[in-house]
Amino acid sequence: MVSNPSQRASKAREKVAPTTLRSAPVAPKGGALKPTVSLRSAPVKVGDQRIYHLTHIKNLASILESGTLYADASEAWDESRPAFDMSSEGNREWRRTTRVAGDDTESIASYVPFFLSPDASVWESIRSHSLDPRLTKKATDAAATDFVILVSAVKNATELHPADVAENDAAIVVTDADAALERTRFGETRDSALRLLHHVRQNADAGALLGAEFLVRDEFPFEQIVLIGVSNDRVRDAVKAILKPSGYRTKVAVYPPWFLPSEETTEV
Prior knowledge:
This protein is of the alpha+beta class. The chain is 27% helix and 16% strand. The longest helix has 13 residues, at 190-202. The chain is globular and about 45 Å long. The two termini are 27 Å apart. The model is unreliable at 1-42 (pLDDT under 50).
């Protein structure tokens, strides 16, 4: 991850041909991906690919109250912003000013961000307490066990805006690395997004899956979240208590490896 503006993307990003892909990122610290996220041994249809949205448990009640995950730049936000803000001021500004394709397109901040792996690089910085210019110190100092991972699938997102996607209106966007980085490739149409997603999945062992993003324009309804991943029984019980008055019956599952630094999970 770069840490200064000179290494960032131009604020008016040029469109990239869907078949023009940058070289795969360097493998993550600790080596190849763990079997739990490897896609080579267990092929998955692109639509069934899981997508992951990270948030702090303090933000869950407000998400449930609105029934929606909002993009940072969404006009739907009222005076209430997330109780626990993970994004650094600099990173938030770059995502608000960096355009998906060109001057006349929306900014990255107009999209709800999802990871393509529960071991995404920015999440790894939090759970290993590593400095990361994308994150606030509050986030990297926080206990990983106090975060929750909201899980859905690519097909749930593509079904939200079928007309827009068919008209190449960038309702969903796939990137092969952090969306605000200079050499990141974007797939802004249905065909190019799914083509780039396929490429990222095929390069999972090279670490492409860890930096990639799946972006959904404006908002994402909570009813499309099929699973909430938590670190332990205590957090599971707390999440269930938050869920109960909301009326949602989303499955809550304890999966400790998602909340451990890569080095620790490698040793398990």
